[in-house]
Amino acid sequence: MNRQTSTSPSPRGREAKPASTTAAAQRRSLTVEWWPVERPVRYARNARSCPEAAIAKVAGSLREFGFRQPIVVDEGGVVIAGHTRLLAAKRLGLTKVPVHVARDLTPQQVKAYRLADNRTAQETSWDLELLPLEIAELADLGYDLGVLGFDAEELTGLLVPCRRSINHVALRTTKRVA
Q1: Which of 5, 70, 136, 174 could bridge to 98 as Cys pair (CB 3.0-4.6 Å)?
Q2: Cα angle vertex 72, ends 103, 94, to 5°?
Q3: Which helix (H) or strand (E) holds 98?
């Protein structure tokens, strides 16, 4: 039986390794180092802006949860992904940040990943039936909703319909059990 393995296109025009081999190699090479916050260099031509509101929200997230995603840099230490995290870390006065050096990317891939990382994030959206339920559960647990990045007006708009929905679901569930 012939097994076909998917391959990813090579940026250099030659046949690429099978995707499974590439993924395994990337898992082995995904290392995180702790760098002084001054060491990563912001990309001067970053096409994505970092508004103050975004920096403040990411700083709040870092304060609450710590770093959970490293800043990705090229071999020269120039930021590929994580500009806002870097600015937020500086705002918080952090002295070190987690960094992944993407040594296996070509210069073309670095430029492309810098754009793709930001653009692909725009393709997602909130499930407006589930989001209010998640927020309501956190509120019921007494969790500080301010660290979620939503402003007070957004939270109110999400919680009010959710409370009605939760009461409706609770009534339906009670009727089924009875």
Answers
A1: 70
A2: 130
A3: strand 96-101
